[in-house]
Amino acid sequence: MLSSRIEGTQASLSDLVLFEVAPAAGTPPEDVREVANYVRALEFACQRMDEIPLSLRLIRETHAKLLEGARGANRQPGEFRRIQNWLGAPGSHPTEARFVPPPPGELPACLDEFERFLHAPSDLPPLVRLALVHYQFEALHPFEDGNGRIGRLLIALLLCAAGIVPQPLLYLSAYFDQHRRAYYDHLLAVSRAGAWEPWIIYFLNGVTDQAADGVQRASRLLTLRDDFRARCHAGGCPAAALRLVDELFRSPAVTLAKTTELLAVTPRAAQGNIKKLVKLGILREVTGQKRNRAYLADEIVRVVEAPQPTA
């Protein structure tokens, strides 16, 4: 499941899934919209890679989806920057910045080299190559806004493009967030001193860490699904309720309309299956409304959102 800790947002998984199934349920719009856009941009890019290769064109299209209606929407979404940017304290000047990417006049040539590197054959191990690509993108900082978000999204896409994972299942955002100072220090050390090896080791440690965490969470989710199904069997639930349980592990929030569609049943039958899962403690109504209700599987959310143990 995608980490919702993206570039300073405070949206939780429950915020996100409730926004997806019931946008009017009162969830805070800014951070939730930003994370929802991240998910949609990733889904868009994965589908688009069936039509065109991972390229500057695909990166620009994905960036436009990422910023649509969210932070940075007024800063040239889908277009490479035409102004100078820099990384430093708020209000700082380029002369005081910690890092200054290439000026806009040099950016097109740099991006052409970046794209050639993306497509060039290589004897490097795929994960090492991915570490190099991520550094290059972050060093170019090619957009006015959203570079951190798109840079992390590109990692998931490149893992799929390299055949390392069949779907975007591995995300390094949580590791980068947990070791934020080291992340920026390593990137800067490459730019200043060519310190590639420490950066690559850091990156590979992140892949190892997040892969292990993903396996552990998946195992806990499988155990929880077995527990849910056992509750349903003990409670005499129909087969449709078991199908709904399985769907909750795709998205742990449902509404009456969504359940009706998922199970291909009447609204009355859908409501009956929801009530059974509420009675068994699998679902909880979270809006407090009499109409347009939304239901959340809290135990699934707790497994996904549980803090990762600190190394």
End-to-end gap: 21 Å
Q: Name the average pLDDT.
A: 90
Quote the beta fraction: under 5%
Question: If strands are numbered along the chain, what order do they take across the biggest sheet?
Answer: 1-3-2
Strands, total number: 3
CATH hierarchy: architecture of the largest domain: Orthogonal Bundle
Class derived from helix and strand content: mainly alpha
Query: What is the 3D shape?
Result: elongated
Task: Describe the main β-sheet briefly.
Answer: 3 strands, antiparallel
Q: Any idea what the radius of gyration is?
A: 22 Å
Helix content: 55-70%
CATH superfamily of the largest domain: Fido-like domain
Counting structural domains, the number is 2
N-to-C SSE string, H for helix and E for strand: HHHHHHHHHHEHHEEH
- What would the CATH topology of the largest domain be? Fic-like fold
Regarding CATH, which class of the largest domain? Mainly Alpha
The number of helices is: 13
Give the low-confidence spans.
1-7
Explain what the structure shows:
It is built from 13 helices and three strands; from the N terminus they run ααααααααααβααββα. It has 311 residues and is mainly α. It has a three-stranded antiparallel β-sheet with strand order 1-3-2, with helices on both faces. Helix 2 (29-48) packs antiparallel against helix 3 (56-67).
